[in-house]
Amino acid sequence: MISKAKTVKDYLAELPADRRAAIEAVRKVIRQNLDKGFEEGMLYGGICYYVPHSIYPAGYHCDPKLPLTYAGLASQKHYMTIGLMCVYGDGDMQTWLREAWAKTGKKLDMGKSCIRFKKLEDLPLELIGQAIARVSVKQYISYYEATFKAPRKTKQKK
Asked: pLDDT tens digits, residue range 60-119?
């Protein structure tokens, strides 16, 4: 479910009480562990944490008007999600997260970067905090540029 809320406060207010409590708990952990340069706001119909244009003017390569997203938090129809772009495409980070998660004894339901959960108890909150804190704004921009700004092959004119 994509929200049309313009602010995080409005987004949280429209959630059912049980979902709101879970999202607020995860949000608190993210905010406590987020590097100082990242900002919080609404993007893509959910709560996002991103590198603002004031730090990275180029923005997101697919739509430079948007800031560079680092993480997201949302309530979907059948579950809630935490999106960790610092895990997407970074084999070392993904391996670390999967191994650390396995040690918690909790089941990991994860795609390429999104962790799905149905209730707060499904998450090892301390590990979520560690994952968020693991990458600074500077490191994330370097990773992003190395991954997404690499020169592309162009077709040569005949």
From this structure: 888 889 999 999 999 999 999 999 998 887 788 999 999 999 999 999 999 888 999 999
CB 106 within 8 A of CB 122: yes
Whole-model pTM? 0.88
Note the CATH number of domain 8-145.
3.90.1150.200
Which one-letter DSSP state was computed for residue 92? Answer: H
Specify the pairing of strand 68-75 against strand 80-84. antiparallel
- pLDDT tens for residues 106-125? 999 998 889 999 999 999 99
Identify the sign of the CA torsion 112, 134, 144, 79. Answer: positive
Would you kindly state where each structural domain of the chain is located, as residue ranges? 8-145
Q: How far is the C-alpha of 151 from the C-alpha of 143, rounded, in Å?
A: 14
